[in-house]
C-alpha cells in the first residue's frame, strides 16, 4: 500500500495548485479525480476564455467577497494576482489585462492553462488517477488515515484536501461530493444555491426587447429588509427574463431569496443611474434639440426603441404622441419607469446553468490561515467547496488558485 504526504480530491484549479506546490516542497502527492479528464469546469470558465484574476489591490479584492471576505485574506496575501501571473509565466503561459482590469491568458483560451498545469503535474511526477470517485474518509480514533474509492480501494495519507468544487454545472461532474465527505466528520454545510446565472421574470414583455443591451443598468431588490442588495452593469433581456454581467452578479443575492419567498420584486434603473430630475432635464434638452419630437424619439434617446415601446405600453401612453400632449401624470409615470422599472424574478434554471455555488462548508469550522478543518486534523478544504463566492471578473478563480496554494504550502 502506497502512503502519500497529501491526497487531493478533485483535479480543478485549487486541487492542482495545491498538488503542484506540495510537490515542489518534495512531498509525495496523489490527485484523485472522478471524471476521465482534469479541469472540466475550468475549461468552460468565461466561455472558455478563462478570466484568471484581476488587477485590484488585495483589500479591494477582499471587499468584493462581502461580509465573509476577510476569510480569504491569508490565502490572497500568500498568492496575490501578480504572484499568480508570475506562476503561470513560469510554467509557460503569458497573461495580460486587455481592458486594464480582467486578466486572461494571452490566447484567451482556458486550454492553455489546463495544458500548462497538466505538464507541471507530470514534471513533478505527481500521481494522477482519473475516473476515481472517493466515497469516504477513513478515520480511526479521530485520526485521518486516508480515503476510500467507489471500488473500495484505500489510499493512505494523514493529509487530505477536499477540492471538489460546488454544485454548478452538474453535467461537468459537480454533485456535492465534497459536502457529503465533510459532513461525515461533523462539518456543517450552509445550504447551496445556484449563482452567477440568468434569471426568469414573471413579466413577459421582456421577450420583445431581446435585441438590445442596456448599459450600466442598476438592479435593486425591492423588499424592505433587502433594499441594500444591488448591482450595476450591462443588462440583456431574454425570452423568459434577464441575463448579462449585472444579472450574473446579482443572481448571487437573488437565488437564496427565491428559495425563501418564491418571487423577488426588483427595480431596474435603465438610465445609467440617473434620477428622476436628471431624466426630466435630459428630456427637456432633447425637446430643444429635436425638431417636433414625439414621445418615442425622446425616450429612445435614453433607452432602445423596443424597450421604449414596452415602457409606453406599461404607462398607457401613445409613443407617437408629442411629449407635451401627454398628461402630467403619464409623463411622470414614464420617468418613474425609466428610473425604477419593476420586474418580478420568479425562477431560474437551477444548478445546470450556475457558474458558481453560493453556500458550502461553514467558514467558522475552518482555519483561514491554513484552510485546515477545525473538526479533524489533516483535513483541508480549498476553492468553491467552502461557503465563499465572489462576483464576475476573476474573483472566484483567483480564490481557487490562492486557496490551493495556501494548502500546498501549509500542511
> Helical amount among residues, as a percent range?
25-40%
Low-confidence stretches: none
Q: Order of strands across the biggest sheet?
A: 13-16-15-14-17-18
Question: Compute the gyration radius: what is it?
Answer: 25 Å
Whole-number tally of structural domains = 2
Structure report:
The two termini are 22 Å apart. It is elongated and about 85 Å long. It is α+β, with helices and mostly antiparallel strands. The mean pLDDT is 95. The chain is 33% helix and 23% strand. The chain folds into 2 domains: 3-192 and 357-410, 3-Layer(bba) Sandwich (FAD/NAD(P)-binding domain); 198-348, no CATH class. The strands form 5 sheets. The chain has a 6-stranded antiparallel barrel.
Quickly describe the structure.
The chain is α+β, with helices and mostly antiparallel strands and 411 residues long.
Write the layout of secondary structure elements.
Layout: E1 3-4, E2 6-9, H1 13-23, E3 29-32, H2 40-44, E4 53-54, H3 58-63, H4 73-78, H5 81-90, E5 95-96, E6 102-105, H6 110-123, E7 127-129, E8 134-140, E9 143-149, E10 154-157, E11 160-162, H7 177-183, E12 189-195, E13 199-201, E14 213-221, E15 230-237, E16 241-243, H8 245-261, E17 264-269, H9 276-289, H10 295-299, H11 305-315, H12 328-339, E18 341-347, E19 356-361, E20 379-381, H13 395-410
Parallel strand pairs: 1-10, 2-3, 2-11, 3-7, 11-20
Antiparallel strand pairs: 4-6, 5-6, 8-9, 9-10, 12-19, 13-16, 13-18, 14-15, 14-17, 15-16, 17-18
Helix pairs in contact: 1-6, 1-13
Amino acid at each position: 500500500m502506497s502512503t502519500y504526504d497529501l491526497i487531493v480530491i478533485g483535479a480543478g484549479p485549487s486541487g492542482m495548485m495545491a498538488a503542484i506546490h506540495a510537490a515542489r516542497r518534495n512531498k509525495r502527492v496523489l490527485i484523485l479525480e472522478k471524471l476521465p479528464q482534469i479541469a472540466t469546469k475550468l475549461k468552460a470558465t468565461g466561455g472558455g476564455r478563462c478570466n484568471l484574476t484581476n488587477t485590484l489591490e488585495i483589500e479591494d479584492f477582499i471587499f468584493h467577497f462581502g461580509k465573509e471576505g476577510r476569510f480569504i485574506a491569508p490565502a490572497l496575501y500568500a498568492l496575490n494576482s501578480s504572484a499568480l501571473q508570475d506562476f503561470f509565466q513560469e510554467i509557460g503561459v503569458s497573461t495580460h489585462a486587455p481592458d486594464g482590469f480582467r486578466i486572461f491568458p494571452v490566447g484567451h483560451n482556458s486550454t492553455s492553462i489546463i495544458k500548462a498545469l497538466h505538464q507541471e503535474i507530470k514534471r513533478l511526477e505527481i500521481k494522477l488517477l482519473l475516473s476515481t470517485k472517493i466515497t469516504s474518509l477513513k478515520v480511526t480514533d479521530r485520526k485521518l488515515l486516508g480515503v476510500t474509492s467507489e471500488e473500495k480501494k484505500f489510499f493512505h495519507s494523514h493529509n487530505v484536501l477536499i477540492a471538489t468544487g460546488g454544485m454548478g454545472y452538474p453535467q461537468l461532474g459537480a454533485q456535492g461530493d465534497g459536502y457529503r465527505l465533510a459532513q461525515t466528520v461533523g462539518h456543517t454545510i450552509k445550504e447551496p444555491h445556484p449563482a452567477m446565472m440568468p434569471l426568469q421574470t414573471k413579466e413577459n414583455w421582456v421577450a420583445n426587447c431581446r435585441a438590445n443591451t442596456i448599459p450600466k443598468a442598476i438592479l435593486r431588490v425591492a423588499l424592505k429588509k433587502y433594499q441594500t442588495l444591488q448591482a450595476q452593469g450591462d443588462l440583456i433581456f431574454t425570452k423568459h427574463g434577464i441575463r448579462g454581467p449585472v444579472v450574473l452578479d446579482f443572481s448571487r443575492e437573488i437565488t437564496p431569496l427565491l428559495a425563501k419567498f418564491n418571487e423577488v420584486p426588483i427595480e431596474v434603473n435603465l438610465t445609467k443611474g440617473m434620477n428622476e430630475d436628471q431624466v426630466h432635464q435630459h428630456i427637456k434638452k432633447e425637446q430643444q434639440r429635436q425638431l417636433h419630437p414625439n414621445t418615442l424619439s425622446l425616450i429612445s434617446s435614453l433607452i432602445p426603441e423596443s424597450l421604449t415601446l414596452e415602457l409606453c405600453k406599461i404607462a398607457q401612453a401613445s409613443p407617437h404622441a408629442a411629449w407635451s400632449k401627454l398628461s402630467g401624470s403619464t409623463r411622470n409615470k414614464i420617468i418613474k419607469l425609466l428610473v425604477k422599472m419593476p420586474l418580478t424574478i420568479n425562477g431560474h434554471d437551477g444548478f445546470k446553468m450556475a457558474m458558481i455555488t453560493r453556500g458550502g462548508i461553514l467558514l467558522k469550522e475552518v482555519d483561514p490561515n491554513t484552510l485546515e478543518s477545525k473538526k479533524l486534523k489533516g483535513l483541508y478544504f480549498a476553492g468553491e467547496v467552502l461557503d465563499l463566492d465572489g462576483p464576475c471578473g476573476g474573483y472566484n478563480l483567483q480564490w481557487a488558485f490562492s486557496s490551493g496554494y495556501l494548502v500546498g504550502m501549509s500542511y
